[in-house]
């Protein structure tokens, strides 16, 4: 075969480059409702086309400088995020590596051997130096699908990085809000303990003049000590939350101290509002959904890679160099050698290895499709859950605020009756305990509302956009 025929065959290979033995990727179809079942909470609305939605720094909507400072540190130093970021860089590197077979590979070689054969007398030295080039013709789309698989996998790791950030951010925000609720509960218990201490002194004075019994003093002491014990118990829980926040921002617990900052007016605490968007927007806004979809695309490309292995491969090779038994004359013209030609290789018998690999790739694709659809409906459920929770907790908070209002009125009336000597102390104990329970319940509901608000922000995915990378 002369050189002309070799080049004709090589050009024919180039003409059919990119011919694929597997179908192009199409995103799996998922049935998504046009609207959410739950209406948006107060202040929230469904986004109009082109309207601003959640920003990437969604926590800034809470107008809490301490929270913003902690999340800024977490975004830079949290180890879960750093692991995801390293995995993303690895994905980018592998995506770039998948492009390498698109161009010829060029290798240099040099050798020096010394030996003896039966056809020669004595020991012989051989020296060689040269270049080898090889280029696989992508007849069946193996290289093209490998590139697609690499790029889509890198995009999936980018989505994983965004999902890791969202997870850490939401965990930190919810932990921080729990800490502030504990600060508020401790302030409530400390103020209540002061009130109970005044009641104890009043009862002791009444006892000294014969207007109260020893039992009433014991009741007042019990009530005061129980409240002080509850306040101490909250300090233990708060310390654990503070330690958890330290780990989330990448610090040892000993290096973080968060000052107490109770909410001053829980009844008038407002939650941030934003646009909920339509259910279909979750496909682009949630990084976990985007990552699952990119893995479907990668799995589809891997089927193309596996199926291409069933067919022959055509490789164009070239060699140029020098070879001689004398190092001093190695680079002279008579010692020059070269070769150029195609090589065709294909499977004959592999005991079903390649076909089994293809079937395995198809199974992985089916699993990735199911994972993607499951991720989508889980995302929809999380949004619906938190929409419902915010709506219900808002109504519950209003009722609890009313309960606190009347409990305070009952305490005032009962304490006045006790001072006037027309009511027993047992009634004072009952109404004071009822008020404390009502106020703590209101704080608990407020904490649940804050956590549900954060969870909804995260469930909506923020302003996540799949990054475009130059591989």
UniProtKB/TrEMBL annotation:
It is a lipid-anchor. The keyword Transmembrane applies. Residues 380-417 form a coiled coil. SUPFAM superfamilies: Outer membrane efflux proteins (OEP). Its main location: membrane. It is found in: Cell membrane. Pfam families: OEP. The keyword ATP-binding does not apply. Keywords: Coiled coil, Lipoprotein, Membrane, Palmitate, Transmembrane, Transmembrane beta strand. Belongs to the outer membrane factor (OMF) (TC 1.B.17) family. This is Efflux transporter outer membrane subunit. It comes from Methylophilus glucosoxydans.
